[in-house]
Design brief:
This protein is α+β, with helices and mostly antiparallel strands. The chain is built from 15 helices and five strands. Strands 1-5-2-4-3 form a five-stranded mixed beta sheet, sandwiched between helices.
Length: about 425
């Protein structure tokens, strides 16, 4: 109840008195000062390059020092009244409540009148924030930056491709996210193998997807490499992307990525009761802010098992077509000295693009590995299958890979964990 009363005050009863603002200026200025280290300077250069043509190029969300020092309380109050409106708010409460209906009634009791009063006092709803990608953020010509900072401890390379934000409000949209996830898993596996080769082009490398802001998502491919070898790392990673576009991933690579994804889904399902309430809270917040559907662990596991067989190798390979130097690409190197110029990065990118166009990049050389580490499938006693509620396999049937995996799953399910209890996999 105390929390509801506090939440009742924070959205609608905040005062913006000059004396209160004076106390907060110092805290924000200290935060601004702490961001002016090497990482902060790198972040500033990153956003200025990434979001050219937008307000983010001129100022980061923390704002300008001159504004922080001199903005009057009346301006803060006007901003508060303009944007802190009921139709922009959501209340998320997560916990082990014995009676959820009573909690909902308490929320309505303490927050409902305040929401209604504020909504009634508002002459008109506030302006809507446009969730569109400004044309200035999309560019066919790649952008380059050589960032040199004497406090930089490592040599690194970052490549970003900007795309409009991708909601996951429907199963069809979630299917596209799964394709991206499998693609990134396959590419990361290749990059890992390259990093373990003799005289590798980089120490570590990997691709992920991130959110730049409400309207923009990014694919980010990064690598840590030897000093003065960032151009070599750039050439190697662009070559692998071009190799995927020309020849695609093999069936084995995609199958392994799918199996890894299935294992993650099963682990998440089995450990659903061991999660933190903050994870559930964050899921509801993402639903409110980004239209991400809220499904629960059981439905999400069923959805994944339904959608994974639909994904084809061609769908995974097609993701690489978005990651070319002509698709809102940004290339950046970070070192403690400026060993090369932006023109050298451009030449490397164009050289790989020309090799791809001429078909000079060959297919991936898959190492020779056995399908199974075991020459003979282990024989599982029939009573173990019965204990798991499964039917023992026909002893006269030929052993297959699927049967071997089922047997291994049963053994794993009945094997004691470090805590002394078994864990049954989701079937």
């Amino acid at each position: 109840m105390a929390l509801c009363k506090l939440q009742n005050q924070s959205p609608f009863s905040c005062r913006c008195a000059p004396q209160d603002l004076a106390k907060e200026r110092g805290a924000v200025l200290e935060e601004l000062r702490m961001s002016r280290d090497s990482a902060g300077r790198l972040a500033t250069a990153h956003w200025e390059l990434l979001l050219q043509g937008s307000r983010y190029e001129d100022r980061l969300p923390i704002g300008l020092e001159s504004v922080i020092r001199n903005v009057p309380a009346e301006t803060i109050a006007a901003f508060y009244r303009k944007w802190y409106l009921p139709h922009r708010m959501a209340v998320v409460i997560v916990g082990d409540f014995p009676d959820t209906a009573a909690v909902a009634d308490m929320i309505k009791q303490h927050l409902g009148p305040a929401f209604g009063t504020v909504a009634g006092d508002a002459a008109a709803p506030g302006p809507e924030v446009p969730l569109v990608l400004p044309e200035s953020w999309q560019h066919k010509e790649p952008r380059f930056c050589v960032f040199a900072d004497r406090e930089a401890q490592d040599s690194a390379l970052y490549m970003s491709w900007k795309v409009p934000s991708r909601p996951t409000a429907t199963p069809a949209q979630y299917l596209e996210v799964m394709k991206d996830t499998i693609f990134m898993s396959c590419l990361n596996t290749r990059l890992y193998r390259l990093s373990r080769a003799r005289n590798p082009p980089f120490f570590t490398a990997g691709i992920s997807d991130e959110s730049a802001c409400g309207a923009v998502d990014m694919y980010v491919l990064g690598a840590a490499c030897e000093e003065r070898k960032t151009l070599r790392a750039l050439d190697a990673m662009l070559t692998e992307l071009a190799r995927v576009r020309l020849h695609g991933f093999s069936e084995r690579e995609v199958t392994n990525a799918v199996k890894g994804m299935q294992a993650d889904i099963e682990s998440t399902y089995l450990e659903a009761d061991q999660g933190y309430c903050t994870d559930i809270r964050d899921e509801y917040v993402r639903h409110f802010l980004g239209q991400e559907f809220v499904s629960g662990q059981q439905y999400e596991a069923r959805l994944n098992k339904t959608l994974l067989p639909i994904i084809k190798r061609e769908d995974v390979n097609a993701v690489a077509a978005r990651l070319t130097h002509e698709h809102s690409a940004v290339f950046k190197t970070v070192e403690h000295k400026k060993w090369h110029k932006e023109s050298a990065m451009r030449q490397t990118v164009l050289r790989v693009a020309a090799a791809e166009a001429a078909g000079q990049i060959g297919p991936w050389q898959e190492p020779d590995m056995p399908e199974s580490l075991m020459k003979q499938v282990p024989q599982v006693p029939d009573e173990w299958y019965t204990a798991c509620g499964q039917t023992p396999p026909d002893p006269n049937a030929a052993a297959t890979t699927a049967a071997a995996e089922a047997a291994a799953a049963v053994v794993d399910a009945l094997s004691p964990s470090p805590t002394g209890s078994g864990a049954l996999r989701m079937q």
